[in-house]
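residues and backbone:
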Amino acid sequence: MPMVPLLAIGRRSRGPQSANLAPMQLAIAVAAESHAAALAALHRAVADHLTRAYGLGPWSSSPGERGILSELRRPRFVRILIARTTRNRIVATLRLATKKPWAIDTAYFTPAQRPLYLTGMAVHPAHQRKGIGRIMLQQAEAVARAWPAGTIRLDAFDASAGAAPFYLKCGYREVARVSYKSNPLIYFEQML
């Protein structure tokens, strides 16, 4: 996958600080087994950040290196995308899979052949609000079309720590609000 130019726009500030922000280049790629430790560290950093900001919740846990390695060894069913800086630091990731996650009830979604399920999206806290998440979703949609898949489905926590406003801004359609094991969730889909 190509290097994607990205303007670093910070936290949408309009002052002297924004003049100091330099353009950033990202390489978007499918993760390899050699990335497992860095991916586990990224997920841990995001979980810790959310826990500090919103308290303990289902967002406080993160996958370990062994679990990530297991997923990476199933490329027929799972693709983990990563975004790396020019210094080769992984700053974002997401997972696309053919298997439905436990928290998704397909009855709420538009019927589609070959749906993919997006889980594990994470952008390092130091790189959030710079457009990286949006670029990752665009790349996920390109990968899904080539898979081929008919739709991308996902859930987000229906809480302050959830990413529902982000998915709406990116054009994903809210299809339901549900509760799974006492965790309120919002289901989203993007037809391809």
Remarks:
- The CA atoms of residues 7 and 23 lie 4 Å apart.
- Residues 3-191 form a domain with the Aminopeptidase fold (CATH 3.40.630.30).
